[in-house]
Amino acid sequence: MNVVAVPGSLDHQTVDGLLDAVAAMQEQRSLFDARHVRWIDPNGMVALLAAGSVARDRQGALPRLELPESVDVLGYLSRMGFFREAQGIFDFDGHPPRRASGTSDVLLEITQIQGNADVHKVIDRVQSGTGAVLASKLHYPATAVVPFSVILSEVCQNIIEHADASGWVAAQAYNWARRLGRYVVVISVMDLGRGFRGSLTEEHSARYGDRWGDTTALEAAFLHGLTRFPDSGRGQGIQQMRRQVQRWNGAITIRSGTARIGQVPEWDDSPPLVDTLEPFPGAQISIILPARVDE
Amino acid sequence: MSDVPPDPIAIDVGSLVQKTVTSLYSHLVTRPTGRAVRMAIETQLSGAGQQSLSLIDLSEVTILDYSCADEVVAKLLQRYLHERAHEAFFVFCGVHEPHRDQIQVVLERQSLVAVGETEAGSFELLGAPEPIEASSWLVLEQHGLVTTEDLTDLYPDEDTRHALDRLVERRVAFRSPVSGRYHALSRLVRHLL
């Protein structure tokens, strides 16, 4: 049996290791050992679903998930809707805590994106409460809920238009007191589709010749706005997301295949480009928006 | 023949998006939604004759994303820009701060221009006009109407007059085929606001 040790802290900094481990796995059934998870964010949760899906599809059986021992983590996974989405992906024992009814502190629980109706659902959901979070935690103006919604819409549409597969989105606010000294909002969007190289190969690979690969495909889309559609109105989504994230001094990274590209602000020490990852299907997007600091 | 286009048509996109798209969507997001709304607008215009002036009202739209702005604004304008059989003019109202950037971006990307009401009763030329087109449009907007007698006073050099004609070609100003007078589109739709 393949055993995947899920890191104790599973977030945007550690998900690559989890995805790499799954990408390199053999065909025996897998066990995801998450017993020691003490901290998990939307990137971690969505990556766990993506990793479990890849293992399931490759191995022809539901991978086993050993649930976190931490009651707090279990409760948080439940509030974020993880267990609902994990049905059919993982085999797990026990009864995860039920989600409490009433008001939740969750900005956007894990939502599967399969079609345009799901994008509308996401946008509807974030209209209530998000403006207050952006204002109170990030000190963004009240109108920020509009560009925030536009980012979510564009990033979710990326799944539908380019992946030809389903994916998930989730978002939550955190106090990064030690890491950054302020609040952040973390948005995670991942799919298991054909990835950027797969989406762009037919239209654009010839001009790159031997250099064509995951890295050049990501650069083409992320830096130059290339898309597989000949229509000149296409390809704006990622460009405008980058622009808005930069306005908020945020970080955006996209992993696809063996590469990850990012637009990283001065507070983030992530490298802007990594090209030595294991080949994982689809695309994994992380956006981190920090609280505004008055000059 | 009238000096101005037929009565303008008011199209409320907020209500159209709910009627057109199968469920009760209140936001103009996703490309298929934008495409459906654009096609509904085109259907409304299909019986409008040789000329039409439409007031596209975005004031009830809360969220407008780039994909929808591309479909409902840029592609709508492109569809009619070189159409000889149906000369369609558009004014976009309710282009307030939450929508402005999306509309500006898609217009610039396609090198288009459009007249937008950006604050109550205040119109701007959005998109990618040449500087001389922008200044010529502003003169027309300030006067509302420029007669052939006024033309050389208000547009003393030939370049600005050519720019005014280009605005007509780009469908952000209307020139009467009867009198030769130039009309600001905002003046022609003001009674609908």
Task: Tell me what you see in this structure.
- Chain A is of the alpha/beta class and 295 residues long.
- Chain A has 2 domains: 1-94, STAS domain (Transcription Regulator spoIIAA), CATH 3.30.750; 103-295, Heat Shock Protein 90, CATH 3.30.565.
- Chain A is built from 10 helices and 12 strands.
- Chain A has helices at residues 15-23, 42-59, 71-79, 82-86, 116-127, 130-136, 145-163, 195-208, 214-222, 236-247; strands at residues 2-5, 9-10, 30-33, 39-40, 64-66, 108-113, 167-176, 182-191, 251-257, 259-263, 273-274, 280-290.
- Chain A has a 7-stranded antiparallel sheet with strand order 6-7-8-12-9-10-11, sandwiched between helices.
- Chain A is globular, with a radius of gyration of 18 Å.
- The termini of chain A are far apart.
- The model of chain A has no long low-confidence stretch (mean pLDDT 92).
- By secondary structure, chain B is of the alpha/beta class.
- Chain B has one domain (9-192): Arc Repressor Mutant, subunit A (Orthogonal Bundle), CATH 1.10.10.
- Chain B contains 8 helices and 8 strands; from the N terminus they run βααβαβαββαβααββα.
- Chain B has a 5-stranded mixed sheet with strand order 1-2-3-4-5. Chain B has a 3-stranded antiparallel sheet with strand order 6-8-7.
- In chain B, helix 3 links the parallel strand 2 (51-57) and strand 3.
- The two termini of chain B are 26 Å apart.
- The model of chain B has no long low-confidence stretch (mean pLDDT 89).
- At the A-B interface, helix 5, helix 7 and helix 10 of A face helix 2, helix 3 and helix 4 of B.
Highlighted features:
heterodimer, A: 295 residues, alpha/beta, Transcription Regulator spoIIAA, 7-stranded antiparallel sheet, B: 193 residues, Arc Repressor Mutant, subunit A
Produce the secondary structure layout.
The complex is a heterodimer of chains A (295) and B (193).
Chain A: E1 2-5, E2 9-10, H1 15-23, E3 30-33, E4 39-40, H2 42-59, E5 64-66, H3 71-79, H4 82-86, E6 108-113, H5 116-127, H6 130-136, H7 145-163, E7 167-176, E8 182-191, H8 195-208, H9 214-222, H10 236-247, E9 251-257, E10 259-263, E11 273-274, E12 280-290
Parallel strand pairs in A: 1-3, 2-4, 3-5
Antiparallel strand pairs in A: 6-7, 7-8, 8-12, 9-10, 9-12, 10-11
Chain B: E1 9-12, H1 13-20, H2 31-45, E2 51-57, H3 66-81, E3 87-93, H4 97-109, E4 113-119, E5 122-127, H5 131-143, E6 145-146, H6 148-154, H7 158-169, E7 173-175, E8 182-184, H8 185-189
Parallel strand pairs in B: 1-2, 2-3, 3-4
Antiparallel strand pairs in B: 4-5, 6-8, 7-8
Helix pairs in contact in B: 1-2, 2-3, 3-4, 5-7
